[in-house]
Amino acid sequence: MEKIGELIRSLRKAEKLSQQALAQQYGMSRATISGIENNTISEIGLRKVEAILNGFGYELAAIPRASRRPTLDTLRKVNFHG
Questions:
Q1: Which CDD domains match (predicted)?
Q2: 46-55 and 30-38 are packed helices; what angle lies between their axes, rounded to 10 degrees?
Q3: Whole-prediction pTM value?
Q4: I need a surface site. Which of 8, 13, 15, 69 has the fewest CB within 10 A?
Q5: Residue 18's pLDDT is what?
Q6: How far is 65 from 3, CA to CA, in rounded Å?
Q7: Is 18 in a helix, a strand, or coil?
Q8: CATH code linked to domain 1-82
C-alpha cells in the first residue's frame, strides 16, 4: 500500500493537482487522500484506490511475488510426506 500511496502522490503532483482537488474529483476528503499518500490511513477501500489510479490511466492488479515463503500447511505436508 505504501508504494501505491507514493505513486498516487507522484501522479497527482505531475498533474499539478492539490490533494483537495483530487479529493473533490472522487468524492473523498482531503484527509483521506493525505492518508492514502502517506500510508497513515487505517483502512481504505480498494475501490477508492482503484478509481484514483484508473483516473490517472493506471490499473490496480495483484501480481504474485517472485519468492514466496511456504505456508504452514505446505511445510507440514513436506515434513509428513517427504
A1: HTH_XRE
A2: 90
A3: 0.71
A4: 69
A5: 97
A6: 15
A7: coil
A8: 1.10.260.40
